[in-house]
Amino acid sequence: MELDVSRAIAQPGQEFPFSGTQAIADQEIYGTVVRIDDCAVEGTFMADDEGNVSVRGRVETVAHAPCANCLKDASAKIENDFDEEFIRNGDPEDDEIFAYEGHHVQMDKLVMSYAVMALPIRFLCREDCPGFEYTDRTEAPEESGVQHPFAGLRQLLDQMEEV
Fold first, then answer.
1. pLDDT tens digit string along 68-82?
2. Are the C-beta atoms of 109 and 98 separated by less than 8 Å?
3. How far is CA 81 from the centre of its chain?
4. Fewest CB within 10 A of the end CB: N or C in the chain?
5. pTM value?
6. How many degrees, rounded to 5, is the angle at CA 112 between CA 106 and CA 116?
């Protein structure tokens, strides 16, 4: 999403509304891939006398990841307010600031940052998700169709007990 800020630069202190959508690439967070739907973004922007642009608004979207308990698909509604300043002719490589050149502000970095900051710590398919459930706790995971990460250790333990 790109904002044309030429009118704001010509009229410092005047607010201008904007709205649009911004796509965000899948994000890998602590080894889990989080898919984020296109973000709805709306707000206002205005420039100061030096050409720096203040942008205020809200990001809304839905994020999808595996449930932390049972690994089924889970989703979470994401909403986050922002209030940032884009520095005219600032260093675009500086991760501590938002910078722009010319008369166009690129919103992708800001939207991605605020969407990711609002992600839940744990995705759950439902609030009371109990996690993996086996009808018979002694049932071998291979027979239940679920691969258990410690199945090999259980086999070794069973073999040691037989000896």
1. 888 899 999 999 999
2. yes
3. 14
4. C
5. 0.73
6. 165
